[in-house]
Amino acid sequence: MNKLRRRSTINLVKELDAFPKVPESYVETSAFGGTVSLIVFILMALLTISEFFVYQDSWMKYEYEVDTDFTSKLKIKIDITVAMKCARVGADVLDVAGAVIASKELKYDDVSFEPSPKKKMWYQILHQIQNRLREEHSLQDVLFKSALKGYFSDPVPQNDSTSNSQNSCRIHGQIFVNKVAGNFHIILGKPIDTIKGHAHFASLIRNEAALNFSHRIDHLSFGNDVPGHINPLDGTEKMTLEQNMLFQYFVTVVPTKLHTSDVSLNMHQFSVTEQERLVSNEKGSRGVSGIFIKYKLSPLMVRVTEVHMPFSVFLVRLCGIIGGIFSTSGLVHRLIGYFVDIVCCQFRLGADQSEEVVPD
């Protein structure tokens, strides 16, 4: 009884087979069919390998939300060289709340403004990357993925020139500010606090040559340090022969949370708009000559997440590739065979008619 039940079950399953079976005696093999089959298998293998690489790759997903953190401090890290003696310039931060962060946390080093050959090469590489970032924004995704892996993470090479002409001042260090709008400025004279407010003591500096604010920004970042992340102003160089130039950088800082397969951290990106003009009271262009980096914080926060293709999606795409190639190749093979049969029939028909017309 059990054997009969098994046979009846197998017969029932066979009757439910919806796929037509063609007997081997009805199948005609040909060189053309074998060639098409070989091409199909090669194409299938190539597309499968390509799909596997796509599955291994990842892309960055950007989401936006309101930044609710207003109590923490924001770190500003700067490394800038000004074409003046350190005794003649001063740097500090003044925010909209009236808080003044003095330059005690910044270091002043007398250096040569002319960079060393090693540093010139570093600038060239950095400028090429900056230009690519402006033209191809997808390069930023590559930099995000390579964060903390050592790419572009070497510190800025310092001048190793033997020149004794230390006619410039390197201002570098980090300061912590409130998360409100403010400006970091470098102007003539050392900063002092008075009863009336913030000022720079420059009355003893009367040499007009001291007002050359040519400068080079080696590094400017907000928030936590992220090796591999290139900031918009890194490597910026401004040269001028005028004595009363005002350089302004309007910066919008965007809080960013980065989540990749290797790292999860909080950072800050920023965009910048530059402006420079000559300060001349005679021409109606008023102001204070110097370098001003005016920053403000965006109320929105960007969440950057590295996304991978799910394995189920990979299987569905792979099945679609294999099934699509099989269906398309069979259709193309039948169409080509159909047209070949038509051409051959017309050729044979014409040959037969020509044989009948020939007289004995």
UniProtKB/TrEMBL annotation:
It is found in: Endoplasmic reticulum membrane; Endoplasmic reticulum-Golgi intermediate compartment membrane; Golgi apparatus membrane. PANTHER family: ENDOPLASMIC RETICULUM-GOLGI INTERMEDIATE COMPARTMENT PROTEIN (PTHR10984), ENDOPLASMIC RETICULUM-GOLGI INTERMEDIATE COMPARTMENT PROTEIN 2 (PTHR10984:SF30). Belongs to the ERGIC family. Plays a role in transport between endoplasmic reticulum and Golgi. InterPro entries: Erv, Erv_C, Erv_N. It holds the Pfam family COPIIcoated_ERV. It is a multi-pass membrane protein. Keywords: Endoplasmic reticulum, ER-Golgi transport, Golgi apparatus, Membrane, Transmembrane, Transmembrane helix, Transport. Residues 13-99 form the Endoplasmic reticulum vesicle transporter N-terminal domain. The chain crosses the membrane at residues 31-54. One of its GO terms (cellular component) is Golgi membrane. This is Endoplasmic reticulum-Golgi intermediate compartment protein. One of its GO terms (biological process) is endoplasmic reticulum to Golgi vesicle-mediated transport. It comes from the Eukaryota. Residues 161-332 form the Endoplasmic reticulum vesicle transporter C-terminal domain.
